[in-house]
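Q: Second attempt. The first request was missing the SMILES, so the protein and NAP are both included now.
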Amino acid sequence: MHIFLTGATGYIGSAVLDSMIKGGHQVTAIARDPEKAERLLARGATPIIAELGLPKYYVPALKSADAVVHTALESSPRGVQLDKQALETMLGAQVEASRADGRHRSFLYTSGVWVLGRSGKAAEEDAPLDPPEYSAWRPAHEDIVLSAFSSTLRTAVIRPGIVYGGGRGIVSDLIKDALNGLVRVVGPGKNRWACVYDHDLGDLYLRILESPLAAGIFHATDEADEHVSEIVEAIAGQVPQRPDIRNMPMAEARKKLGAYADALALDQKVRSPKARALGWEPTQAGIATSVARLVEEYRNAQREKNNE
Ligand SMILES: NC(=O)c1ccc[n+]([C@@H]2O[C@H](COP(=O)([O-])OP(=O)(O)OC[C@H]3O[C@@H](n4cnc5c(N)ncnc54)[C@H](OP(=O)(O)O)[C@@H]3O)[C@@H](O)[C@H]2O)c1
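A: Got both inputs this time. The predicted holo structure:
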């Protein structure tokens, strides 16, 4: 399959890229600068220098692909609007291309479990949404993707849990803080995070792509239902010197992190039955049980970064 991938230089996108290449697919990936494009080339992708806001640089490549996998998100004030425009551009281009050549196409969008809000009761893919302010924009983007489904365009929305593994993301930041001697936890840490290992997530994208009937919403979680305090304790016990752990009162966390604080404080229990129905079995069953591996992966990622 020929896949057009956005965000391949990012945390989720790089796991997806590795998994697609391993699966024997041809991947065209966009990068915003030549140095990152070189790195994508070294990892097996065909890079093109482009950015979401300038479709003329990437639409021709996208049109010739069998599938588009969108994992990019710009972390700037224009990021949400840009994501909406990019979705409309990419889906529109796929419809046009199918009309022209009669080929069926697929589109995979990366959302997140935070759209579910507080979900103490094991939320499956049909659970009602209640996003915190931080993710309030996201359901409308999911709807754009889901409503574009047609006889020639298969669309899927993937909602990953908080991703762990490698050297990036929220969990790696906890490892870094622990190695530096101080971990700050938003609130009392009695909430549960829904999480997923990066390689397992990459595997799920591949399965969805390769399953012609897979469409709609897919949760991607390891279903470990770990409390934040357990995660932090496991990490604290794995670093050479036990760090201080400081629980930030919510008012202070909101002052420091804004609406992001409430997203981090969500209590979530999220199930992924649709992914499991595709035969997806996460290899890592939670952060606490994988913590030695995760600290090692973090260290390796730092070493690689320092050698670049
Ligand atoms: N990480 C998680 O735990 C998690 C969990 C659930 C959902 N999600 C969602 O998954 C998506 C990806 O997250 P992530 O953690 O992988 O983010 P990330 O590591 O920040 O990666 C973002 C990617 O988007 C690219 N990008 C940003 N602005 C762009 C633009 N204007 N044009 C083209 N590319 C652009 C970045 O390229 P550069 O390398 O050039 O910056 C990078 O490749 C987001 O929607 C996020 O909300 C993440």
